[in-house]
Design a protein that fits this description.
Layout: E1 8-16, E2 22-31, E3 36-40, H1 47-54, E4 66-69, E5 72-76, E6 79-80, H2 84-88, E7 91-94, H3 106-111, H4 120-125, H5 130-143, H6 158-172, E8 176-180, H7 188-205, E9 208-213, H8 216-222, E10 225-230, E11 233-239, H9 245-252, H10 256-260, H11 276-279, H12 287-295
Parallel strand pairs: 3-9, 3-10, 7-8, 8-9
Antiparallel strand pairs: 1-2, 1-4, 4-5, 5-6, 10-11
Helix pairs in contact: 5-6, 6-7
Keywords: ATP-binding, Cell inner membrane, Cell membrane, Membrane, Nucleotide-binding, Translocase, Transport
Protein name: Phosphonate ABC transporter ATP-binding protein
GO molecular function: ATP binding
Length: 299
């Protein structure tokens, strides 16, 4: 069996919103299996929009284009494929606002990642086999919050909730993790722990990680490769170590200062209004409902 050469393959991806603004403009991109790649750019550069297209949450413009996940098309020519649910089983999506169900326990939130493997009646009533519960406990232990397994998710700090989201990706057995500004609302110590966890997923589990960040110093510390977006275009794709202040000034002009200033973390995270509903934690009333939202196809 031939090895998969690319975890993510994007060709000629464009997205134009209803107001005529081009959020993505002819994106071509390749990410190899096992890479850990940073996606940087000022607010409104297209980072979140790109990640949502890769996950099949949003359809691109109706023009020749393609996104493949592990060799399988997830959308083509502006249409999301019918098999999107099965493809999404390989994608763990980590949201800035954690996307946990606050009234459920931490363990149940993590077990949501296993629902796709269960029979329909177990999914319907949220009954998890012992093997899946053991996997959940192991994942919570790995991310360092096993002692909080029985607590409601709402009781955790922001950093702990984000680590629970990473544990859910482990239980899901995702081969790719897309992390959308996972540290934007966290304090420096929590940010470090979450980025350490992402690196552990990449190094120890060989999971491909594409993480959008607002801080170049974090990208340089954790990701060997960085992709920089500006106004929906890729303006840099190469070694993170080459992102000097001079180069960033050349790429971003006055916006470069925000990418270099680590003290402004989370201060300028205003996103495109089109993405806001998808980031809101609407509080699904059951684990099955939460999973249904995570895999539902976009039209």
């Amino acid at each position: 069996m031939e090895a998969i050469r690319e975890a993510i393959r994007i060709e000629r991806l464009s997205k134009t919103f209803g107001n005529g603004r081009k959020a993505l403009d002819e994106i071509d991109l390749r990410v190899a299996p096992g890479e850990m790649v940073a996606l940087i750019g000022a607010s409104g550069s297209g980072k979140s929009t790109l990640l949502r297209h890769i996950a099949g949450f949003t359809a691109s413009d109706a023009q020749p284009s393609q996104i493949e996940i592990l060799g399988r098309p997830i959308q083509q020519n502006g249409r999301i494929v019918r098999e999107v649910r099965s493809i999404r089983r390989d994608i763990g999506f980590v949201f800035q606002q954690f996307n946990l169900v606050n009234r459920l326990s931490v363990e149940t939130n993590v077990l949501i990642g296993a629902l796709a493997r269960l029979s329909w009646w177990r999914r319907l009533c949220g009954r998890f086999p012992r093997a899946e519960r053991a996997l959940s406990r192991a994942a919570l232990q790995e991310v360092g919050i096993a002692e909080h397994a029985r607590e409601r998710a709402a009781n955790l700090s922001g950093g702990q909730q984000q680590r629970a989201a990473l544990a859910r990706a482990l239980v899901q057995r995702a081969q790719i993790v897309l992390a959308d500004e996972p540290i934007a609302s966290l304090d420096p110590e929590s940010s470090r722990r979450v980025m350490d966890m992402l690196r552990a997923l990449n190094v120890e589990h060989r999971i491909t990680v594409l993480v959008s960040l607002h801080q170049v110093d974090i990208a340089m510390q954790y990701c060997p490769r960085t992709i920089a977006l500006r106004r929906g275009k890729v303006v840099y794709d190469g070694p993170s170590s080459a992102l000097t202040p001079v180069l960033l000034k050349k790429l971003y002009g006055d916006d470069a200062s925000g990418l270099l200033d680590d003290t402004t973390r989370g201060a300028d995270e205003t996103r495109d209004a089109h993405d806001a509903p998808a980031r809101a934690n609407t509080g699904p009333t059951s684990a099955c409902h939460a999973f249904a939202l995570s895999i539902a196809p976009s039209n």
